[in-house]
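User: Show me an example of a complex going from sequences to structure tokens.

Assistant: Sure. Here are the input components:
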Amino acid sequence: MSYRVAVAGASGYVGGELLRLILQHPELELGAVTANTNAGQSLGSLHPHLPAIADRLLVETNEANLAGHDVVFLALPHATSAEVAKTLSDSTLVLDCGADFRLEDPSAWEKFYGTPHAGTWTYGMPELTLAEGGKQRGRLRDQKRVAVPGCNVTALTLALAPGLTAGLFDPTDIVSVMSVGTSGAGRALKSDLLASEVLGSARAYGVGGVHRHTPEMEQNLTKAAGVRASVSFTPVLVPISRGILAVNTVRVADKFDFETLKLVYQDAYSDEPFIQLLSDQLPTTAAVLGSNNVQISLAFDQHTGRVVVVSAIDNLVKGTAGAAIQSMNLALGLAETSGLMFGAVAP
Amino acid sequence: MSYRVAVAGASGYVGGELLRLILQHPELELGAVTANTNAGQSLGSLHPHLPAIADRLLVETNEANLAGHDVVFLALPHATSAEVAKTLSDSTLVLDCGADFRLEDPSAWEKFYGTPHAGTWTYGMPELTLAEGGKQRGRLRDQKRVAVPGCNVTALTLALAPGLTAGLFDPTDIVSVMSVGTSGAGRALKSDLLASEVLGSARAYGVGGVHRHTPEMEQNLTKAAGVRASVSFTPVLVPISRGILAVNTVRVADKFDFETLKLVYQDAYSDEPFIQLLSDQLPTTAAVLGSNNVQISLAFDQHTGRVVVVSAIDNLVKGTAGAAIQSMNLALGLAETSGLMFGAVAP
Amino acid sequence: MSYRVAVAGASGYVGGELLRLILQHPELELGAVTANTNAGQSLGSLHPHLPAIADRLLVETNEANLAGHDVVFLALPHATSAEVAKTLSDSTLVLDCGADFRLEDPSAWEKFYGTPHAGTWTYGMPELTLAEGGKQRGRLRDQKRVAVPGCNVTALTLALAPGLTAGLFDPTDIVSVMSVGTSGAGRALKSDLLASEVLGSARAYGVGGVHRHTPEMEQNLTKAAGVRASVSFTPVLVPISRGILAVNTVRVADKFDFETLKLVYQDAYSDEPFIQLLSDQLPTTAAVLGSNNVQISLAFDQHTGRVVVVSAIDNLVKGTAGAAIQSMNLALGLAETSGLMFGAVAP
Amino acid sequence: MSYRVAVAGASGYVGGELLRLILQHPELELGAVTANTNAGQSLGSLHPHLPAIADRLLVETNEANLAGHDVVFLALPHATSAEVAKTLSDSTLVLDCGADFRLEDPSAWEKFYGTPHAGTWTYGMPELTLAEGGKQRGRLRDQKRVAVPGCNVTALTLALAPGLTAGLFDPTDIVSVMSVGTSGAGRALKSDLLASEVLGSARAYGVGGVHRHTPEMEQNLTKAAGVRASVSFTPVLVPISRGILAVNTVRVADKFDFETLKLVYQDAYSDEPFIQLLSDQLPTTAAVLGSNNVQISLAFDQHTGRVVVVSAIDNLVKGTAGAAIQSMNLALGLAETSGLMFGAVAP
């Protein structure tokens, strides 16, 4: 059986990555590929790395073009997703790679995005451990509307959730600093994304708790911890195209014990197909490039009473498009790993 | 049906890439993975990007460990391949990713490598057009010994062969300058391959006709042209890990016509599954990264009477490991594209 | 004695580099810094690497603001330079870093730039050897209008001129392929200059003899050779911000002898303060980064009858702003090296 | 007046940077340049970016060769510095760029370095604010033995010291994560510093409080705060050759007020010649490359009660060689800025 899928917003980097993964998925058939200003262009002109569909033309993102698909992926600017989503059939599985439906708290949405809250969809992070027991995976089966997590959010959440759920971390003292690649900033023209500005340089941005991924991080970690979590998050742009290397540090709770922590993580993640818990090595973004994998390492700094959980993902795969496919698999009742079990491209 | 394959020299970059591709191939089962100084280590410690086989241990490269496989890939230093090859059964398909069996002319081998010539195996470049008619593909079926081409050689040969076979190029006036990534230099420790030396820098090497790929280039182009070809080749190391961007220029023959040339290339390559002939775009290494694809563009500079054929490949895939799998597919009678039809990882 | 200098077009990369060099020059005092759309902004917002002048404001590029300076550097888009130049006093030394006044042949200008030819100024390449004897240096003294050479042009010209002047090269068979950094493309927003497109990738552009630097290259080499020279030139964009690594190959003339060639280059360049003739090493862009130096190496490939001259420059220093200061020094009668004798920043 | 200076350990990256800065210093004359295994080689072979001294030969690092200089810079592996230092005259100014003489607490030294403590020299960080009043600058005048700070240490210390001295930060809750370039790891051959491993990748190292710079960081911040400070520090290697981008976060003290903090930093740093306090921009490593400058920005995240101080330095200049020259200037009674007032090389 094959599902017919559409990609709305196929001209950007997330759209391109969805196309790459759809082509590799044994149970998917590519239907409409849509865009806004790029409608009419060929995929080959925008994504020359996908020769199999180079001659396909982008059509306009509208109700008619997106109708008649089993699955629609939205890879659109925020606020636009919500508009397009309204036009889609209830029986279609829709996965939004944007932010519109991630947050549950309308005031958090409005504070960070400045537009009215569009609603909340089922959150597409299967591996998220929940304070109430179980993982988010159980909630995705048969869903028709899925909000795909933010890339930085995934790097932090998967790194800290098990320790929080186990009560081993203090949820009020979390500091996360991430080295992130440029593709996460999208394909729009901005002067500080010019290669001349990025090559040979590192720079922080969204400094001081203002990055839009912060409330989503706290929403997740609060679900994992069962009590309110807060996060100090700072991203640093570095000269890599893909990848997030997250250094997540958290003060340990009173009852902390490092051996227990390691068991907790093994218990949470040893059966997860996309999570590698490293013991003798440290994560690198190169080791996950192009794959849906997450690398995680644990270290305890007794001297400061902090655990340092380092995690690495490919922002366009496990950070977005791969996570979307993984949630789609679950929502459709396919094998969760279908079309996603390949190694990274390294070096 | 599944073929059991071994990789000899699995600790290096070519070895790692063979493993990645073998894992994605539907008709292969991984047998022994061998190394020399790294024997005893886990694949996870050397290739952390391949979690599916992280716990597999490298065994020593010797006759016993390599016996009992349908296919053996050799990813060994030159001269070592020839030694190991002697120990392998005649009924085993052996593909050498090194240089030992590529050259037909013993004196060329000795001049460039300084050791006795080990022999010549069937050359694993299916798309190579031959002056005598047909392509090299026809010679690979049922072979048991295949010499996988050099990476730079592939980038040049596929770029110029059709025009030479058609008699539209002067085979005695070819200049090729390539921007090449660092993985082509392998994993050995050399001070000029330190990141501090490579980042932000470009440097030529092997300047003045001394690069070892030169005689192999000329061997191929001579077969394509039917008359003796000579090549001025200069590689330039640039700060990318993978990829070859080749600028191949050639003086046109007297009877040259650019429209004819374009037809010749379309005729030669439009049905090739791994070759993209670009008309409105120019090749980039990013657009082939991680894939077995080749991008080629043609331009005619009337003013100097030279054609400039730009080509791009991933040196570890179409340049080595992917080419090895492709030739293996042909030699085994599988579909030539089996396990190799995936897009590149971009951006 | 101190000269008061203005920079017109100070918001771009060439403008920024002129400012950096002016601040280091012992005999210059910075006057007006002008821009077009960025007028009113502080230099600190555009060039945060120059804290000494962070609070200076950009003023509009107009006659009044540029009046009253001893020296005016133009770092403007082509055609704009010519417009602004008209408004400047004859007694002011004007150096144009753009293309407007480089070409002597109006038809070449019109073919490559598509606008009317503005005229020709004294060419600012002191080290250029001339077929008629001497070097270009001798023509710069006391000049009031200087055309600063194109960056790629400098990398090629200095590499080949002495051999052409000596009659050792065939001026009709020159092939040059350069690995170039992104800053040479300027600060304007273009999608193919986004970091995500450039990182990890190499791509050729201006392929097939259409790059605008071609006629300037041929003009120079014709002056060096004394007979008409033609050049096949292809630039390749690589992930470095600064630098040009040029692989320049040329067929040798009948009377060629490699030992003679080396003597010719030593004779031409051993006293040049900014040219390093390497014998045991090869040029790298890292080794000239931030400096006004040129590295040049010679190799002879007897087998193809071609000499390969590799050269490296920093496109923003010896390729533009440094060359401008050097010519200014000569035109003002200062020491040619004043303000320019510093090493490169490596690694 | 000119001082004669020697560089012991001139073959590495710090040694090379010292040479570059010495050549630009108006009051220095280069004497002996020494090395261990590289003795006998020319500087040109090791530092081709410094053509002015390309023909100088490295001599052995020994007492005789280092005698007779006014100033000796040590750029040696730790433990070696202490050995060499014993052989130098008391009247010679000696500046150690290594770690041997930085720590005051012998047990901290032994814990992190595993060798006997060699002693403590005057700490070469002029801008360090002290809880007891004043800055470290006052202690450097006329000193003969100076310990140059560690590069990461400088990036953290200058970022947080004024707020700690003012009592506005909690010295027990400091988390610092730095993106660091590869040159900080030196020129020794290590497989994880190969360009193929570094390009396109980010990876943390020294995770969990084990990095050797940690005790030096805490020593400095304790002096700034007047009470014991502790630091959770994690470095991340990113694909840049030079530069440190430090994200330093600290919980605010009870009496904290952000406006007060900004005034405290202005008071501490507005007259510092090498520190730029940014208000509308954020630091980048590109903006300090090649310069002795430090960029610092302040942000307050009220939501988590943490201040985020971002700082950027060039690890080889302000992080090592530039700091050494600056301390030398002070120790010799020269202008502190002599030979160091130049802008960065950007883009």
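The lines above are the inputs; the final block is the predicted structure for all four components together. The domain at 152-315 of chain D is CATH 3.30.360.10 (Dihydrodipicolinate Reductase; domain 2).
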